[in-house]
Write a structure and sequence with these properties.
The chain has about 280 residues and is an alpha+beta fold. The protein has seven helices and nine strands; from the N terminus they run αβββββββββαααααα. Strands 1-2-3-6-7-8-9-4-5 form a nine-stranded antiparallel β-sheet, with no helix packed on it.
Length: about 280
């Protein structure tokens, strides 16, 4: 009987530990992903609702720091360097804090990204950007705090905050023109030294056409003569083709470039090959 009571207690205790009541969060989490031109922007935040309350000037006092949402810090991430309200912001993730006012909002990007509420010890040195944005009154009421992107085009978008009857937007400029031109130049400019090196290395490793591998590795080395790893591969391809003079010359070039970059490993590998080929 005693054993049965123990088993029953353990079963009840185990069920109590594992069982968890599931209920909707008062301020549900939301994740917004938007590509602006060629830049990825992500916003993660929790969305409180009005529920009959006065928000700005009430629940959220005017001219005081607000976490711009609920629960954990509201976060924004940029895949590239951008400009927000004309202020330069490096690629990365930031928390968003605001100081809502009757006429304007102060929008602050902060480098601390782990926490909830507002920082206990505010550090001005962690402010990545601070911009002012005007408040526009909406002709309708927004029940749940919402962050969206508006005026989307190839070069910019407006980060929009709406709640109650307030609409606040700030422009994010992205480097689309620069990135597009860089991509165009790279593609139309033909293969890079790394492309030729990768192709030659594949042919060498797989024992394919060594003459073709030689052509590619020669192009790679001519485009990047200081790349000691490319000269190393060139020496091995030449040796495979039986061109010992070329192999020795390439190995010596690799040693010289590796020494200049302080890479002892490649110096030793090349010296070992030269010794194997009868060059002391």
């Amino acid at each position: 009987m005693k054993k049965l009571l123990i088993v029953a207690f353990l079963a009840t205790f185990s069920w109590g530990v594992q069982a968890q009541v599931k209920a909707p969060a008062p301020s549900p989490f939301s994740k917004l992903e938007q590509k602006v031109g060629l830049t990825d922007i992500t916003v993660e935040y929790s969305r409180p609702s009005m529920r009959g309350r006065t928000i700005f000037g009430g629940l959220v006092p005017y001219d005081e720091l607000w976490r711009t949402g609920a629960n954990a810090y509201t976060l924004v991430s940029f895949s590239d360097d951008v400009q927000i309200g004309g202020k330069a912001v490096a690629a990365g993730t930031y928390s968003i804090f605001t100081k809502p006012g009757k006429q304007n909002w102060e929008i602050i990007l902060y480098t601390d990204t782990d926490g909830g509420g507002t920082p206990r010890n505010w550090d001005e040195g962690k402010v990545a950007a601070r911009v002012m944005a005007p408040v526009r009154e909406l002709p309708f009421s927004v029940e749940t705090f919402t962050i969206t992107f508006g005026d989307l085009n190839n070069n910019s978008a407006e980060l929009v905050l709406t709640w109650e009857n307030s609409y606040v937007g700030v422009t994010i400029d992205v480097p689309t023109a620069m990135k597009a031109q860089k991509s165009i130049d790279a593609v139309l400019g033909g293969p890079t030294a790394n492309d030729y090196y990768a192709a030659a290395s594949y042919y060498f490793e797989e024992g394919k056409d060594m003459k073709q591998a030689k052509e590619w590795i020669d192009k790679a080395v001519s485009m990047n003569p200081e790349a000691f790893w490319m000269s190393r591969r060139q020496s091995l391809i030449y040796e495979k083709l039986g061109d010992m003079k070329g192999a020795i010359s390439a190995a010596k070039n690799s040693i010289k470039a590796a020494k200049a970059r302080g890479n002892d490993q490649y110096v030793q590998m090349n010296e070992a090959s030269l010794k194997e080929w009868g060059i002391e």
